[in-house]
Amino acid sequence: MKVSLKGSKIWLDGRLVDWEDAKVHVLTHALHYASAVFEGIRVYTTPKGPAAFRLKDHIKRLFESSKIYMMDIPYNMEELIDAVRLTVNANGYKECYVRPIVFRGYGTMGVNPLNSPVQVAVAAWEWGSYLGSSAAMKGVRCMVSSWRRINAQSLPPQAKSTANYANGGLAKAEAVKNGYDEAIMLNTEGYVTEGSGENIFRVKNGVLSTPPASAGVLRGITRDTVLKLAEEMNITTEKVNITREELYTADELFFSGTATEVVPIREVDGRQIGDGSNYPITAKIRKRYLEVVHGEADGHEDWLLYLR
């Protein structure tokens, strides 16, 4: 999706600037060496006004990612939460996607990141369904990528870093070039990890499973939300390694993520998942998830941070 919103505002290093003026130097360290971490957050309309979903959890993870990469963010949590509020309100959005990013700016060239300054930006834009408007109803077609998910001994998968998404980008491009909607990645041991930018869930005989963090997945905040909601609905959940063939024999599969929300998978490598159209547990979880993020369900009020 191309994002170009002239007249909109972006928060950059402590102040709001016009969209077209939010610029960095061509020798910015992050551009050359992927020295950046980021978050994706959604703001939803609710009966009490626009609310960011699990904003504090996202900002906490941003700080944890930064710590892993030895980047000292020059703002505290409350200042970044205020930056999100300021950016969303300055643009007048009722629903939007928010992208905070922490990156090494222009300092010195070379792989060593420590001599480059740490910069922070927050952008927001209106963004519909990440995997397409029909994905929630029809489901998406996937292929198992030939590219393996990064190994924790090479790059830290628990940091939401731009470097990791080069790995996912290769898998996504391969899938799209081959006529699929999305990729599913295995780790170097051959177990399922996640999509190119989403966590994955499997349903078999009424049990909901997802790969553990030790498989090399990002501990997604939507993943955590799905697990908590499923348990509240008395759906048995487990975090276990999943093999490639267990994808094919699943009763249901679905992706979860902030941009993706909850989307069923109807096909993997040419194999139809379940009956190809009816995914009751996925639908039940998706319905509950959307009720919660829109402030239409009892409980989990603490997950909503109202912005106005």
Short recap of the structure:
Helix content is 28%, strand content 26%. The chain has 308 residues and is of the alpha+beta class. The strands form 2 sheets. Strands 8, 9, 10, 11, 12, 13, 14, 15 and 16 form a 9-stranded mixed sheet that branches.
Description:
The protein has 308 residues and is of the alpha+beta class. The protein has two domains: 9-125, D-amino Acid Aminotransferase, Chain A, domain 1 (2-Layer Sandwich); 135-293, D-amino Acid Aminotransferase, Chain A, domain 2 (Alpha-Beta Barrel). It has eight helices and 17 strands. It has helices at residues 29-33, 55-68, 77-91, 135-138, 162-177, 221-232, 244-248, 280-293; strands at 9-12, 15-18, 36-38, 41-44, 51-53, 96-104, 118-125, 140-144, 182-186, 192-195, 199-204, 207-210, 237-239, 252-257, 261-268, 271-272, 304-306. Strands 8, 9, 10, 11, 12, 13, 14, 15 and 16 form a nine-stranded mixed beta sheet that branches. Strands 1, 2, 3, 4, 5, 6, 7 and 17 form an eight-stranded antiparallel beta sheet that branches. β4 and β5 form a beta hairpin. The radius of gyration is 19 Å and the shape is globular.
